[in-house]
Design brief:
Elements: E1 12-16, H1 19-26, E2 30-37, E3 40-47, E4 50-56, H2 61-75, E5 79-88, E6 98-106, E7 110-113, E8 116-119, E9 134-136, H3 139-149, E10 157-159, E11 162-164, E12 168-175, H4 183-193, E13 197-199, H5 202-212, E14 216-224, H6 230-263
Helix pairs in contact: 1-6, 2-5, 3-6
């Protein structure tokens, strides 16, 4: 296992919070190489003919921001994709469905007044300019994800009316350092941030990408509905959700290769 890439890599970086999420994509890499930087394992290779670097961030915003920073510093990726599971806030979403985040926000950042939490971004340490509440994804990556969604090989979702393919929508993903298992909190996130899904890493990655000017998109597949049954549902639907998110990312790499070849 090497400790440093030989030179900056012109790659697509793929991140996930859980080891099992990134393992699904690592298994699809050709020409694999492994690097350890600050005790964190990065795996490079090619996926559908395109260069990729994959890393497991760990849970929470600090782990995600730290890993993303190391990734950008050492591998210089052309874009970053975050993949994994999330709790569904949009009531139309069920386990296995997918949200392509057009924008992300920290749902636990701001000022708490007697009336409640007022959302506000902190200053960008690199520029001194205040960050927005919402970090917008790269529009090209959002469109690529949507294109890939129509072609990917997904796990079908069991319903009372039979099996169906996952619903895929563009939406809002919100991030905080808490696992949400509260219908009341979901209603608040939906009302105040128009959230479709809630998780613990996406906005941290988006903030680093925003500050370092690296194109990004967050892809989240629903494992639960972030209510009182969230922990049980997550255990039941985790594999389905993780597979569907990774399948979309895998197809994004394929479609990106087709598009770039067509432009040559």
């Amino acid at each position: 296992m090497e400790t440093e890439p030989a030179k900056p890599q012109n790659t697509t970086a793929i991140l996930g919070a859980f080891q099992a999420e990134v393992a699904l994509l690592e298994d699809r890499l050709a020409e694999r190489k492994e690097y350890t930087i600050e005790s964190i394992r990065f795996v490079t290779g090619t996926m559908n003919g395109r260069g990729a670097v994959i890393v497991w961030t760990g849970i929470g915003k600090v782990n995600a921001a730290m890993t993303t920073t190391l990734l950008i510093e050492h591998f210089k990726p052309r874009e970053i994709i975050f993949t994994g599971i999330a709790g569904g806030v949009n009531p139309t979403l069920q386990p296995g469905d997918i949200v392509i985040a057009e924008k992300t926000a920290h749902h636990d950042m701001g000022t708490i007044w007697p009336e409640g939490l007022f959302f506000k971004g902190v200053k960008n340490r690199l520029t001194g300019i205040q960050n927005p509440v919402f970090f917008r994804a790269d529009s090209g990556l959002v469109e690529l994800a949507e294109l890939a969604g129509g072609k990917a090989a997904f796990e079908k979702i069991e319903t009372t009316e039979g099996k169906r393919l996952p619903k895929i929508l563009r939406g809002v993903v919100v991030t905080g350092d808490v696992f949400v298992a509260s219908e009341e909190k979901c209603l608040d996130l939906r009302k105040r941030l128009d959230a479709d899904a809630v998780e613990m890493e996406g906005a941290a990655v988006a903030q680093i990408c925003h500050q370092r000017q690296v194109p990004h998109v967050v892809i989240r597949s629903i494992s639960d509905n972030a209510n009182a049954g969230a922990i049980v549902d997550k255990q039941m639907f985790y594999i389905l959700a993780a597979k569907n998110s990774s399948s979309l990312v895998f197809e994004m790499m394929a479609q990106a290769g087709i598009l770039s070849h067509g432009q040559e």
